[in-house]
Amino acid sequence: MRTPVIAGNWKLFKTVAEAISLVNELKPLVEHTTGVEIVVAPVFTALSRVSETVAGSKIMMSAQDCYWEAEGAFTGEVSPKLLADVGCSHIIIGHSERRQFFGETDDTVNRKVKATVAAGLTAIMCVGETLAEREADATFDVIEKQLRDGLLGLNAGDFVRIIVAYEPVWAIGTGKTATDDQAQEVHVFIRGFIRQLIGGDSAEALRILYGGSVKPENIKKLMEQPDIDGALVGGASLKADSFAGIVNFGA
């Protein structure tokens, strides 16, 4: 059995005070939740205080990005080592917004995933196609390249610290959601590719999340798909009641 993961990516929202308030609102809404791993990803400036606020609760904390070197003359960067030090258990890597706006490539994703795993943290590695790529029937080619290059040099043992998040770029923040069948089809492809890459046992254990306008209204149908193991949630994670509604999809 793969334990579902519901992760909230807060993107560039929430001051420290707002982040603490959101977590304090969320905690009682999920304190009786079982069988689901709950993760929130605040901005860098809020990580330390959010870590203190989630301590002793069922909520884990992720960063939204990292740099692959542990330390050095890299002004403005934050390493997995430092993120672990502040209380992170996860790091989101390769989100489409990082690829689109900040020059993230499959090579830098690969370096970051390796560094995250080496630091003992869990990498939430994002893959996904644009609308143009889907309309050109290139979805599987794009996903395969992102997986192959992003996971280069990693072995089966590393995959205990890797989660893949499929986020069709055309569904992020647009209100459009891939149909249950569309999402399942890509998740099946991802698991099949990982099976070829590292073997069946690791592929079956791999958690694959869906992201792209996930809401309380559509999470249950998505989670009924056999290869969807959770969600990477954007806008709906910014309010405690809507995020809790997604976390408690099985209630």
C-alpha-based Rg, rounded: 17 Å
Helix share of residues?
A: 40-55%
If strands are numbered along the chain, what order do they take across the biggest sheet? 1-2-3-4-5-6-7-8
Task: Name the helix and strand elements from N-terminus to C-terminus, one letter apiece.
Answer: EHEHEHEHHEHHEHHEHEH
Shape: globular
**Sheet with the most strands?**
8 strands, parallel, barrel
Beta-strand residue fraction: 15-25%
First-to-last CA distance: 18 Å
Q: What is the residue-mean pLDDT, rounded to a whole number?
A: 96
Given as residue ranges, the uncertain stretches (5+ residues, pLDDT < 50) are none
Task: Kindly describe this structure.
The chain is α/β, with parallel strands linked by helices and 251 residues long. The chain is built from 11 helices and 8 strands. It has helices at residues 16-30, 47-54, 80-85, 96-102, 106-118, 131-135, 139-150, 180-198, 200-205, 216-223, 240-247; strands spanning 5-9, 37-41, 59-63, 90-93, 122-127, 162-166, 208-211, 230-233. The chain has an 8-stranded parallel beta barrel, surrounded by 6 helices. Helix 5 (106-118) packs across helix 7 and helix 7 (139-150) packs parallel to helix 8. The mean pLDDT is 96.
